[in-house]
Amino acid sequence: MRITIFGSGYVGLVTGACMAETGNHVVCVDIDQDKIDRLNAGDVPIYEPGLDQYIERNRAAGRLEFTTDIEYGVKHGLFQFIAVGTPPDEDGSADLRHVLAVARSIGEHIDDYRIIVDKSTVPVGTADQVKSAIQEQISARGAAAEFDVVSNPEFLKEGAAINDFMKPDRIIIGTDNPRTTELLRALYEPFNRNHDRLITMDIRSAELTKYAANAMLATKISFMNELANIAERLGADIEKVRIGIGSDPRIGYHFIYPGAGYGGSCFPKDVRALARSASDIGYDAELMNAVEAVNDRQKQRMYTKISEFFGGELAGRTVAVWGLSFKPKTDDMREASSRTLMEALWAEGAKVRAYDPEAMEEARRLYPNEPRLALCENAKETLLGADALAIVTEWQEFRSPDFQLIKDSLTHPVIFDGRNLYDPDTLVSLGLNYFAIGRSGVV
Ligand code: NAD
Fold first, then answer.
1. Which of 62, 89, 115, 392 has CB atoms 3.0–4.6 Å from 338's, for a disulfide?
2. Which residue ranges are tagged as binding site for NAD(+)?
3. What is the per-residue pLDDT across 117-138, written as a single tens digit (0 to 9) for each?
């Protein structure tokens, strides 16, 4: 089948590569010339495990193209996927500028039947706006062309995106026209073989399903972080509590890890956008507001702990930071907890020596010429001249470090662990002070 995908970011590239992998002819359109040039030169601008091989293989086979030529894209695909960003607007609502720009572009060039498939995360009612934007452009040209708009929210996880796309838990299709259901069923057939994972519903419910999923996941995290803060003050160990509650199958062990707060390009903005959608219709989404407030506070926890340890005297101190991406196996630093920590430390006159296995290029882009940030070659190098170590992202390579080396390198033998990677008793026995989330050990 012929597919066009607008937006060559995390979702667009993974969708394009996976759709090409199953034999479709995919054209990816982006307005970022630099990104398209890099892709055409065989360079993948983001880190996502396995994505580079998928892109290379399918580009070589002629099934995957990258272009900034919008007209070529609109003429190419029966399916026109929208996978552009929907960043938070100033008032917390989803900024639909890019989605509607794509809709207008399609309207300017459409001359035959097209199915517009919205993969971006968008508030309820956006499909109607997309429809109107396309129709306005068609009418302005005095032309006529038939099209349908479908909501097909994406549930992939950065770091496991290829596997999530190839073997999805579910494929949500929101449509008001049965013919599109059958065409999308055929398109998704290769990803739907083991058992039927395709769930069809009306467009508005599909749009809301994506927010509901992210809001539930964010709620689980904020719930555990709230409990961790209580556990800490009561002298309990949240990790033991986690195992204790997870054993109840109604709760389960998945996604109940306490930590330094959630970040990334989805949970923060989607919780905010859902709360905003609710308030726009006169409903105060108290739980969503609380989930966000707990998370904002949690992202400050690492800084608070460090500041308390040093008696509020951070000027002139240096903190080694392990992990910059918002979670392991990605280079994405959007709304990452590392940024909250580093910026709070800098504001108090401290310096940071940081290392991340994949996000160094992104850190350099976000903080160009930042004199208070030293980006180091490896985890060991961050410790040179540092007063303390803070772990923000749970990359595998941080799980079993040389604790003796850490102790010998730091001017203060202290680890602040935002992801509860270590056993407090072990660290204390090695002479290291250890402050984690909802559990601690002091020498
Ligand atoms: P991204 O920022 O990585 O990529 C968006 C791309 O769209 C950029 O390359 C940008 O240049 C391009 N773009 C902007 N305007 C354009 C236009 N008019 N025409 C063509 N291209 C244009 O975004 P992302 O992380 O891939 O997210 C895309 C959408 O998918 C968002 O709505 C997001 O909420 C949702 N989503 C993201 C994830 C994730 O893990 N990143 C998961 C599920 C859903």
1. 392
2. 30, 35, 86, 121, 158, 269, 334
3. 999 999 999 999 999 999 999 9
* Same domain? 188 vs 321: no
Please tell me whether residues 166 and 284 are part of one structural domain: no
Q: What is the mean pLDDT of each run of 10 residues along the chain (443 residues)?
A: 98 98 98 98 97 98 98 98 96 96 98 98 98 98 97 98 97 95 97 95 98 98 98 96 98 97 96 97 98 98 98 98 98 98 98 98 97 98 98 98 98 97 96 96 85
**Following DSSP, what letter does each residue of 377-393 receive, concatenated?**
SSHHHHTTT-SEEEE-S
| Shared domain check, 376 and 298 | yes
Active site residue 376: no
Residue 146 domain-assigned? yes
Q: What is the pLDDT of residue 60?
A: 98
Side-chain-facing half-sphere of 317: CA atoms under 13 Å: 27
**CA 94–ligand 1 middle distance (angstroms):** 12
Closest CA to 100 of 208, 1, 6: 6
Closest Cα to atom 20, ligand 1: which residue?
A: 30
Tell me how far the alpha carbon of residue 240 is from its chain's centroid: 28
Q: What is the ipTM of this complex?
A: 0.99
Of all protein residues, the one whose alpha carbon is nearest to atom 44 of ligand 1 is 154
| C-alpha span between 3 and 26 (Å, rounded) | 5
Amino acid 215: pLDDT: 98
* Residue for token pair 């002819």: 25
**What pLDDT is attached to residue 440?**
87
- 155 and 222 both lie in a single domain: no
Residues 183 and 274 in one domain: no
Q: Quick one: 26 and 168 in the same domain?
A: yes
Indicate which CATH number applies to the domain containing 303: 3.40.50.720
Q: Is the dihedral of CA 176, 177, 182, 186 positive or negative?
A: negative
| 312 contacts: CB under 8 Å, gap ≥ 6 | none
For 199, residues 6+ apart whose C-beta sits below 8 A from its C-beta are 170, 171, 172, 173
> C-alpha dihedral over 261, 264, 265, 269, to 10 degrees?
0
On whether both 185 and 119 belong to a single domain, the answer is yes
Same domain (yes/no): 103, 241: no
Q: Can you give the residue range of the structural domain that contains 70?
A: 2-201
Q: How far apart, in whole angstroms, are the C-alpha atoms of residue 228 and residue 294?
A: 11
User: Residue 441 has what pLDDT?
Assistant: 85
